[in-house]
Amino acid sequence: MRTQIIFGLIVFFLIAGCSQAASPNPERIHVTCESDDQCQTPGEYLIRSNCPFGSKCVLGSCAVVCPMYRHDSDYTLNISNQVACGKDADCKCEDYIAKDTKRCSCLDGNCFAVVR
Fold it and tell me: What is the DSSP letter of 83?
């Protein structure tokens, strides 16, 4: 009986921890930053499968971003490369299919869709 209670408590705390980790953390998005490591991606984006979302410091504020990829035109090759850029104008938002895109930016030499 004691083992079942301990097991139940462990499961409870694991589930509580997971639900807390997956909840949005607005304090770490749209906050002032100087580097990417000061930003944290909200769990609601980490669990989405349409993009490997992350967070970056964009114009001094934390933002959720999605790297933009170009897929090889030869469908027999399963190759995707991140879109390189030199300036924001090199990044075309129409190449990104998600509806929550605010703008596309050139960050660290690669195109990203800024979504939040």
Answer: P
**Residue-level pLDDT at 65:** 93
Q: How far apart are CA 69 and CA 5, in angstroms?
A: 49
- Per-residue pLDDT of 69-110, as tens digits, reads 888 788 777 888 889 999 999 988 876 666 667 888 999 999
Place of tokens 């938002």: 93
Report the length, in residues, of the chain: 116
- Contacts of residue 16, Cβ cutoff 8 Å, sequence gap at least 6: none
> Going by C-beta distance under 8 Å and a sequence separation of 6 or more, which residues neighbour residue 106?
85, 86, 87, 88, 90, 91, 112
pTM, to two decimals:
0.68
